Amino acid sequence: MFLNKYINNISSLQTFQLVRFTTFLLISILFTKSSLSTADIGRFEMFLFIASFLSFFWINGLIQSFLPLYQNNVSHRTAERKESDRSPELFNAFLLISFFSFLFFLFGWTIRNHFSVFGISGNVPFLNLLLVYILLSNPAMLVEYVYLLKNQSHNILRYGFISHAVLLLVVTVPVYLGYDILWSIWGLIVVSVIRLIWLGVLMARFAEFRVSWSFMREHLYLGMPLIISTLLSGSAQYIDGVIISSKFDAEAFAKFRYGAKELPFVLLLANGLSNAMLPEFAKPGNLKKSLAEVRKKSKRLIHLLFPLSIFFLLIARWMYPVLFNENFLRSADVFVVYLLLIISRLLFPQTVLIGLKRTRVIMLASFVEIVCNVALSLWLVKDYGLVGVAVATAIVFVLEKLLLILYNYFSLRIRPNEYIPVTLHLVYSVVLIGIFILIDHGVLVIR
């Protein structure tokens, strides 16, 4: 087949992330075209927001630390062990992720009456189902990475398309049949159960069911700085949501969430590239080759995604009322700011550091980022509302990446040009910012 030469671990994982994003985007669009009120949509978005807020940092940290650790352990096995042999690392990673899922299930249950949503204490939408969803959905995220580590790129694609097609159906069909948004929540849980069952099938095929406390200690040692750094740096979007939900109502929260989506593809393709490259850095003597590969792949993404960002920047204010409805016109103002995040997303100093197991510096840079983000968001929200919070996020994301690039250069002697097409990135960034300023001042307007 013609497309086979383009299908590999990196492209498959990127496509999987893209399919996931597109599915939730389609759900958002279909909801706005249904009989649901903006407040109902806001409650659904809050459900997803809280579930992600309580999980994103530790699930990403554990998975990112697991990928190079697994590759490193495989490389040190005897030559007699084949790639298809069962792996105790998979089983122990599953145990850790399941433990964290249960821990945060208990945490959520404990604090359920002690925080507010939309200014109303204890009024968490669909609380019991939310906690069940947290418990079930996170361990199932291992599925695509099992396929990645077993070099089954075609299966990543099959699993991605089939599972998300089912998700789209079970979440949206009940709404169009006239049922309450509650049934869409149940749809999320049903899909999580199906994914968890499939993970069990893969575990039976590829995992050795043997507890290894030494591996879990090593996994936690490597993963804890990443968990903390992901909590700090990744909290930017959640800090935005917390600030918005505390100062505005459910409708405003829905409008912000619909705008704070970045350009489809950017975050997903960037994360897919970063995660897929991590096992490569763990291979002995592979540093120069891995750096060159990151530069090559990121250059390709820059040529693809910056022009797309400019295009969406130009049509955003026309697109949003058409794509959703007139109630979400304000979302476009948030969206055009989030398009600027591509400047930081397509820089990959963190990939180098994670691959080389230098995770603690990422944690420190993330701490600087979150402090700046909170201060700047609270300052800008006073005068600029929803848009001010988005601007703060765009600024601090660039700051964090610059700190990591400087560390790589001065401490590891890795020049930025070894893994970043510097001139190309700068030119595109200047053009993007220039067009943003012209649009913001009303010079370029497409409605």
Structural description of this entry:
This protein is an all-alpha fold and 447 residues long. The protein has one domain. A two-stranded antiparallel ribbon has the order 1-2. β1 and β2 form a beta hairpin. α9 crosses α17, α11 crosses α14 and α12 runs antiparallel to α13.
Main attributes of the structure:
447 residues; mainly alpha; two-stranded antiparallel sheet; 18 helices; 1% strand
Number of strands: 2
Number of helices: 18
Q: Outline the low-pLDDT stretches.
A: 75-84, 118-122
Overall outline: globular
Please, what is the oligomeric state?
Answer: single chain
Which structural class should the secondary elements be placed in? mainly alpha
Order of helices and strands: HHHHEEHHHHHHHHHHHHHH
In order across it, which strands form the biggest sheet? 1-2
Task: Briefly characterize the structure.
The chain is mainly α and 447 residues long.
Produce the secondary structure layout.
Blueprint: H1 9-32, H2 38-53, H3 56-75, H4 88-110, E1 116-117, E2 120-121, H5 127-137, H6 143-149, H7 153-176, H8 182-206, H9 213-233, H10 235-247, H11 250-259, H12 266-281, H13 287-323, H14 329-338, H15 342-345, H16 349-355, H17 360-412, H18 422-440
Antiparallel strand pairs: 1-2
Helix pairs in contact: 1-7, 1-12, 2-5, 2-11, 3-4, 3-9, 3-12, 4-5, 4-9, 5-8, 6-7, 7-8, 9-17, 10-17, 11-14, 12-13, 12-16, 13-14, 13-18, 14-17, 16-17
